[in-house]
Write a structure and sequence with these properties.
The longest helix is centred in the middle third of the chain and has 9 residues. The termini are far apart. The protein has a two-stranded antiparallel sheet. Among the domains are: about 40 residues, no CATH class; about 35 residues. About 0% of the residues are buried. The protein is built from 3 helices and 6 strands, in the order E-E-E-E-H-H-H-E-E. By secondary structure, it is of the alpha+beta class.
């Protein structure tokens, strides 16, 4: 997090936390500028983020959970549709692929899979 400082000539500067309590020169007018020290009660940006995200799972932790799965399970989890009403499915008699129930031709092996009721 940067510290905002104003030089004696009115230029607004942002300096790094490491400069707290030190002196430097304004890059614009070369006037001497003293950077104030951080107060003990002042929160850094990182501390605020930790407070706001307390109890939430971090994206890295979620990625670690899915990385424990084997590659086939990862692909299946990525393709999984959100929970909702189940769509009817059927199995192709030739290649045994599971396809949506409304399809009449298997997209994998191009076999006609419609039943008499569907025709």
């Amino acid at each position: 997090m940067a510290i905002q400082v104003t030089c004696p000539n009115g230029h607004t500067l942002k300096v790094s936390d490491e400069m707290a309590g030190k002196r430097g020169l304004c890059p614009i007018c070369k006037a001497k500028v003293e950077v104030p020290k951080r107060e003990a009660g002042e929160l850094t940006e990182e501390a605020i983020l930790e407070i706001l995200t307390a109890g939430e799972e971090s994206p890295r932790a979620k990625a670690a959970e899915t990385s424990d799965l084997d590659p086939m399970a990862q692909r299946a989890a990525a393709r999984r549709a959100p929970e909702g009403p189940a769509t009817p499915r059927k199995t192709c008699p030739r290649c045994h692929a599971i396809i949506p129930g409304g399809m009449k031709i298997c997209p994998n092996c191009k076999t006609y899979v419609a039943t008499l009721e569907e025709v």
